[in-house]
Amino acid sequence: xxxxxxxxxxxxxxxxxxxxxxxxxxxxxxxxxxxxxxxxxxxxxxxxxxxxxxxxxxxxxxxxxxxxxxxxxxxxxxxxxxxxxxxxxxxxxxxxxxxxxxxxxxxxxxxxxxxxxxxxxxxxxxxxxxxxxxxxxxxxxxxxxxxxxxxxxxxxxxxxxxxxxxxxxxxxxxxxxxxxxxxxxxxxxxxxxxxxxxxxxxxxxxxxxxxxxxxxxxxxxxxxxxxxxxxxxxxxxxxxxxxxxxxxxxxxxxxxxxxxxxxxxxxxxxxxxxxxxxxxxxxxxxxxxxxxxxxxxxxxxxxxxxxxxxx
Length: 311
Description:
Elements: H1 2-25, H2 27-55, H3 73-79, H4 82-113, H5 120-132, H6 135-145, H7 152-159, H8 174-199, H9 203-211, H10 216-244, H11 248-253, H12 265-274, H13 279-310
């Protein structure tokens, strides 16, 4: 009995000691806790990134085990690749078309759903539903909606006397259709972020503005929008990064067509890697895309810091 009692008393001291180690008395125990996450990050993120950098200086096909070193030839080849730069132009078209439109529409929806009205939580859930839905399933539904002959879009346009375009089959309209689908899918996420920003604005600022006789438009430009600028900046940076990496919607809707009108960089990289099997050249394109995204992000951060300093 006495030995059992002593062993029972010893347990709390052991857990207390372990807790002390975790708090900071012994750092290795803390590293042990984060080891599984670090192994996952290293195996599935860090090592592939470094391997892609290695491949960008080699010529390697999945079908051939040899990986001869070619130096900067992949990058030099890319500089003269008109198809790649056509995909880059399409990517910028997609970014400049989808990012401002998505942020503006999401802000408008957030302003409407930030009011106290009946069923507001149902409306918020409705707009957020596409965010948690499968992109593949959504793209398949939109293929039917945008079908030129019996699709819902053209049917509704026909009701008001407008002949709808061929959308995904027309090089002039295909990218616009992809932008519409992308904006529609991203509204819910951006709306939630904007709602968080709107609800963080102190109510007394609005009350003071109303007492001074400011109308709703003046309140928006003088109070709401300036105080939402950090939120706008966050969404702009993250959405631009995501837009440069657009792939799934384009793969499902158009596969880069028609006539290459929706061939963006990531889809172009996919074709080089898994259809042409030129992994080295695809890796070089990936690193150029990373460099462009990195530079654009740095410019945005510097601009935001300057904006905050001046205001």
